UniProtKB/TrEMBL annotation:
Name the UniProt record assigns to this protein: Methyltransferase type 11 domain-containing protein
Domain Methyltransferase type: 20-95
Entries under Pfam families matching the protein: Methyltransf_11
UniProt source species: Trematosphaeria pertusa
GO molecular function, one term: S-adenosylmethionine-dependent methyltransferase activity
Highest taxon of source: Eukaryota
Length: 263
């Protein structure tokens, strides 16, 4: 299963007919866009509106579950991790990731607090521990996965920016919103917010300006790959419970992709 109603290069490859990909997203517009693209490109996939903390899928449905950049920005990430675990088949693989460092995302929250004070958090903001390399791993373990079954990797990505003013406005528009929604004061102080956002951003680790004046941002992500313990490793009580699952004996390969939130 894929938790992300977004375009995916994986889906643009030639896939066996036995593969089914289930995509979920909490936002109906994203689901509609995804399903339109899936229909145009004949992807073996359909998106549904669903809360990743309470999925409609049966136990042990999927061979793979993908959750991009989501756990540390949720109010209850452990509930989502438990759903990943529950819906995976024994021996199945879950893949999730989050940013250990992302200057453009971190700057939004700091900008809002600098202007409106400490009690004015943005609507989308990661957990304070998102920079802790152990945090994502801990969430997966609390969700039911075995600590020893997780592999952690770090990967950096560089984003070149042609127009910093345009970029700052776009990012602030996307993730600068107050938790309760935009206010009249936001409109009045819009230019001030953009200016402070650029100032905060320029002081972040990962913000680079070369000698020709070209701007780029370097972000660092942690990717976690974890397997659910295999059938033969389970207790007799767990095996009895799993045997009741109607989808456990399915011959189809099912993928699940979960919704990422942009930062």
């Amino acid at each position: 299963m894929k938790r992300s109603a977004s375009r995916n290069p994986f889906l643009q490859t030639s896939l066996p007919k036995t593969i089914a990909i289930h995509t979920t997203d909490l936002a109906p517009p994203m689901v509609a866009i995804y399903n339109m693209l899936a229909g145009q490109k004949a992807w073996p996939s359909q998106a549904k509106v669903m809360n990743c903390r309470k999925l409609d899928f049966a136990h042990s449905t999927f061979t793979h579950s993908f959750f991009s950049f989501g756990l540390p920005i949720m109010a209850d990430p452990v509930a989502a991790a438990k759903e990943m675990y529950r819906t995976l088949k024994p021996g199945g693989t879950a893949i999730t990731a989050f940013w250990l460092r992302i200057p453009q995302g971190e700057s939004a929250g700091e900008t809002r607090r600098r202007i409106w004070g400490p009690d004015a958090p943005p609507a989308i903001e990661p957990h304070p521990r998102h920079k802790d390399a152990a945090f994502n791993h801990e969430l997966l373990v609390q969700g039911g996965f075995k600590s020893a079954d997780a592999q952690l990797y770090e990967k950096s990505a560089v984003l070149p920016v042609d127009d910093l003013d345009e970029f700052a406005c776009a990012i602030w528009s996307a993730i600068g919103e107050l938790a309760g929604g935009w206010t009249q004061d936001d409109e009045v102080r819009w230019e001030e917010a953009i200016a402070i956002y650029k100032e905060v951003l320029s002081q972040k680790k990962g913000f680079h300006v070369d000698r020709d004046g070209n701007v780029s941002f370097e972000a660092v992500a942690q990717i976690a790959i974890v397997k659910k313990e295999a059938f033969w490793m389970r207790s007799s009580r767990e095996l009895e419970w799993l045997s009741r699952s109607r989808k456990y004996t399915s011959t189809h390969t099912a993928y699940r992709v979960l919704t990422p939130l942009p930062l």
